[in-house]
Each structure stands twice: as structure tokens, then as C-alpha cells.
Amino acid sequence: MKISIITPERRLLLDREVEEVQVPTPAGYIGILPGHFPVMGTLGVGVVSFGEERVAVEGGFFRFEEEKLEVLAKMAWRPEELKRKELEAEKERALKVLRTSSDPQEVERAAYLFTKASVFLTLFRD
Amino acid sequence: MRNLQEFRRRIRAVKDLIQVTKAMKTVSAARLRRTQNKVINYKPYAERVRLMLSELAYAIPQAHRLFQPTEEKKPLLLVVAADKGLCGPFNYNVIRKAVDFLHPRPEALLAVVGRKAKEGLRRNYKIERSIFNIFQKLNFSHAKEITDYLLSGYYSGKWDSVFVLYTQFFSVGRYYPTVERFIPIPPFEKGAPQEFIFEPGLREVVDALMKHYLELEIWRILLESSTAEHAARMIAMDQATRNAQEMVRTLTLQMNKLRQEKITKELLDIVTAIEAMKKSQI
């Protein structure tokens, strides 16, 4: 099967031959293997992984049909484009808001940013 | 300008100016290329989203709020211009068109993107929201934020329709301000429905896709306006460079004329003096 990852701003990869892909949905990861029934869905914030490769994504859609997986990510980063220090700082900031704020909107936003930073930081675990 | 020194000073000043306008032109040309690349990448992505929407059009209720024609009694106009000037009539054209739109619609609300749009309109109109400094580092999250804002007011009833005024880009020499209706949208064309499993469910995918479609429209609008702005600035700076070069030419001519006159006069003085000396020797 083949995978393409594109965003409104750029093409990350086109028709790469892969054996299995893990895709992040808002409800958790789903695995797609060759021969999977056609599936269409929304992307959460997380990491698309195939073989040794990882691509961080935030929002968007995926569509698998005729052995082709198209990942249409609103935003996407290769691991080398992310900065560990920045993510750690972002995580700290979100945590601080979660501990101190009582505004529900602020808390929701902080919880999202906390999840995002935490998930992307897993890319740096060896 | 009577003396040569003054001429030299002015020529030097204009030559310095040429350096600046030339540099600005080069920068604009580079930015123009970068934005045009983004447009190239936007197109296939938007096509995929439109394909998915047409495949799912059967599941979108005709009665969806985004499709319902409204009376447009309380429209919101989003005006997109630049943050900076020095780009010829680019901002002025947008502002004039905004006035044309707002004048016959006193009940219309106004939101702006770009500092120059605010500066041009704030005296005569109340601005609901201003968004600045996004063009320097334009990315998709800006389009998301703007779309969220436009939709929230539509769903809460603060406005009943949204129009966007921006500069449509055709080529480096051709770009015009235009007004488009953003919400409500016409229903999507129905494509061949395919069998799919939906994650998490059909309803959620459809809703998210429709919202994403609007985000992509705003993204296209921001890109086009930004492309046109860079093109306009490039042309304006090119014109400025040429005008300055012409000025250097004229000033140099005038200076040379003055210098020649001076030389002629000095020569004349010398010759007259020699003649006088000859005469006195006789």
C-alpha cells in the first residue's frame, strides 16, 4: 500500500510504499494494513507512523481506498522540524494554566496544548 | 541649485535611494515566489477535500444552516489588505471598494485583516475586529482562527451572512479587488457515493469537512491577497527605481552643464587676461 501526506501549505511525501500505518484519530490510533476496508475519518493531534518514519500532525482528514492512504493534515511536521526545548516549555506553560486557572475555556485550551506537546515529545524518546 | 557641491550631494542622495528601492524590489520578488509556491501546494490539497465533500454530499442535509439563503440584512464584511504600504494603489483600491460596499448597507458590520485596512476605514466605520501582522509569517492556523471567528458570529446570529473583500490575483500585472459571498455557501455537487467506514462517524466527518472547506477558502483568500501585495510592491519599487535613475540622469546633465559653463568662464578669464597682458607689453 501507499501513503501520501499533504497539507494546505506543502507536500510532505507522495506515494511512499509502506507495509503498515498508524493514524491518530480524535478517539485514538487506528492501524491500517493492506486490504483494509475503505475508511475515511478525521485526524486528531498525534503522530502518523510507518516503518521507522514519524510525522507529527494536527487536525485534518485521512482517506484509505484502493490501497492508497491519503493523509490531509491541516498542519504537519517532520520530527527534525520540531524543537524539544520549545515543546517542553509549552508543556510547562500549559501545566501552569491547568493548575491555576478556573476559566473553563482557558482550561480546555491548556489541556489541548498539554496533550499536543506531550504527544509530540514522544518523538524524542529513544 | 547654484553650485556643484549641491548637485553632487543630491546625486549621491538619489543613488542611495536607488539602493533601497532596488533591495525592496528584490525582497518582494523573493516573497512573491515563496507565496506562489504555497498556492501551487494548496491546489491539489483543496481538490482532495472537494472530492471527499462530493463523495459525502448525499449525507449533507439540504437544510444545513450553511446552505440556507438569508436576507442578508446584517452582513459582515471582512476586508483583507496589507499591513504595510509602499505597494502602489494596492491598499487604496481595496479600501475604495469597501466603501462602495458599505455605503449602501448602513447595517453592515466590518472586520479587517491588515493594518492598512484599519487605517483606511476606522474614521468612518466601526470595526468589530482587526487582525494584524499575519502576512509576515503566514500559516494555516491564521486561516483557522479567522474562520472560527466568522462562523461563531454567524451561528450566534450576530451577522446573517459573510462577505469577503480581497485582492484576487491573476498574474503579476493583473490583480483586482473583489467581493465574494463566503457564507451561506451553495450546496456541494454530488459525486458518486463510495462505501466507507467512517472514523469516528459520518456526521462528524461531514461537519469537520465542511468547516475545513471554509478554512481552505480563507486560506486561498489570504494567499491571493498576499501574492498580489508582493507583486504590487515589486512593481511600485521597480517604478521608483526607474524614476530615481531618471532623476540621476537629469541631475548629472545639469551638473555637467554648470561645470562646463564654469570652465568656459574660467578659460575666458584667462584668455582675456593674457590678451590684456599682450596688449600692455606692446
Write the layout of secondary structure elements.
The complex is a heterodimer of chains A (126) and B (282).
Chain A: E1 2-6, E2 11-17, E3 21-25, E4 28-32, E5 39-42, E6 45-50, E7 53-65, E8 68-77, H1 84-100, H2 104-121
Parallel strand pairs in A: 1-8
Antiparallel strand pairs in A: 1-2, 3-4, 5-7, 6-7, 7-8
Chain B: H1 4-56, E1 75-80, H2 90-102, E2 109-113, H3 115-121, E3 129-131, H4 140-156, E4 161-171, E5 174-183, E6 197-199, H5 202-281
Parallel strand pairs in B: 1-2, 1-4, 2-3
Antiparallel strand pairs in B: 4-5
Helix pairs in contact in B: 1-5, 2-3, 4-5
Structural write-up:
The complex is a heterodimer of chains A (126) and B (282). Chain A is α+β, with helices and mostly antiparallel strands. Chain A folds into two domains: 2-80, ATP Synthase, domain 1, CATH 2.60.15; 83-124. Chain A is built from two helices and eight strands, in the order ββββββββαα. In chain A, the strands form two sheets. In chain A, strands 1, 2, 5, 6, 7 and 8 form a six-stranded mixed β-sheet that branches. A two-stranded antiparallel sheet of chain A has the order 3-4. In chain A, a hairpin with a 2-residue loop joins strand 3 (21-25) and strand 4 (28-32). Chain A is elongated, with a radius of gyration of 16 Å. Chain A starts with a strand and ends in a 5-residue tail after the last helix. The model of chain A has no long low-confidence stretch (mean pLDDT 93). Chain B is of the alpha/beta class. Chain B folds into two domains: 4-21 and 239-281; 28-237, Pyruvate Kinase, Chain: A, domain 1 (3-Layer(aba) Sandwich), CATH 3.40.1380. In chain B, 60% of the residues lie in helices and 13% in strands. Chain B has helices at residues 4-56, 90-102, 115-121, 140-156, 202-281, and strands at 75-80, 109-113, 129-131, 161-171, 174-183, 197-199. Chain B has a five-stranded mixed β-sheet with strand order 3-2-1-4-5, with helices on both faces. In chain B, helix 1 (4-56) runs antiparallel to helix 5 (202-281), helix 2 (90-102) packs across helix 3 and helix 4 (140-156) crosses helix 5 (202-281). Chain B starts with a helix and ends with a helix. The model of chain B has no long low-confidence stretch (mean pLDDT 92). The A-B interface holds A 6-11, 25-27, 30, 37-42, 60-61, 63, 65, 70, 72, 74-75 and B 38, 41-42, 44-46, 48-49, 52, 56, 139-141, 143-144, 194-200, 204-205, 208-209, 212, 215-216, 219.
